[in-house]
Amino acid sequence: MTSQVLRRNLLKSPVFKMHPARLCLRLAEGKMKYCLMKFCRVLCLMLTSPLRLMELTGLYGVYRRLFPFLAYNVTFSYNDKMHNTKRELFRNVCRFANADGSLRLLEIGCGSGANFKFYPDGCTVICTDHNPHFHRYLRRSMAANTHLTYGDFVVVSGEDMGQVEDESVDVVVCTLVLCSVRNVQRVLREVRRIVRPGGAFYFLEHVVSEPSTWTYFFQHVLEPLWYYLGDGCMVTRATWRDLEAAGFSEIHLRHIDAPEVTPIIRPHIMGYCIK
Ligand SMILES: C[S@@+](CC[C@H](N)C(=O)[O-])C[C@H]1O[C@@H](n2cnc3c(N)ncnc32)[C@H](O)[C@@H]1O
């Protein structure tokens, strides 16, 4: 593009059409909103300091035991709201089956097994999660979804799945997990290691909102509290950037607003990457 075209496009942008006074007002408003956001976040951080202390002293571990029970119950409502979205997400998962029709799928952070009903008949599912206390609820979902075959439940963190062999599965799935892991890039490296060439990684994750929105404002303000309620869940991650940088050969990614879900986690990304 020549510099003249660039200049013409720039002059057409709404910012340049705005009266200078209005532009200054907008900038001042933006700056004020940003300062307010930072101030409220610090307040929220201060309010959650007892929780931080509990985490440091190991007392928060009690909540970690309780979390699977809460997550199991919240999952029903989330799954109801996201039923059509999840159906659409896993619609073409059979495409990654082998010539004999077999499909080995590994879920990272499977939780209580909320996705089982969306997987195709006969698929073998290997469940992994770093929290062993999900096992009880996982067993209930397994009993309710007899159309699948299950491997052992592997208690392992997504960042280091050394127990899982290289290129040993056709599909890897993460739903509402990349928000909570400590290191998204390391998890994606592990995904690329364990999925076979031509296999796929399916994801459905809540992400940070557009900076101009109130959702973005409240995501930043309430994150310190949400982190503890959601067992390490961060609401300000731009996970699509990590996916784009992870080195997959194809990415099919869509930004969506999850219907009826709590506003702070409404912006989602969904799709799949091919190795
Ligand atoms: C909000 S729950 C989602 C559970 C399930 N995927 C679903 O869609 O209902 C987040 C899950 O990620 C798991 N998790 C968080 N960090 C993890 C990590 N580093 N490695 C493995 N699992 C992790 C949690 O234990 C929990 O089961």
Automatic annotation (TrEMBL):
Pfam family name, one: Methyltransf_11
Methyltransferase type domain span: 106-203
Gene3D superfamilies, alphabetized: Vaccinia Virus protein VP39 (3.40.50.150)
GO molecular function annotation: S-adenosylmethionine-dependent methyltransferase activity
PANTHER family per record: METHYLTRANSFERASE LIKE 7A (PTHR45036:SF1), METHYLTRANSFERASE LIKE 7B (PTHR45036)
Identification of the protein by name: Thiol methyltransferase 1A
Species the sequence originates in: Sparus aurata (Gilthead sea bream)
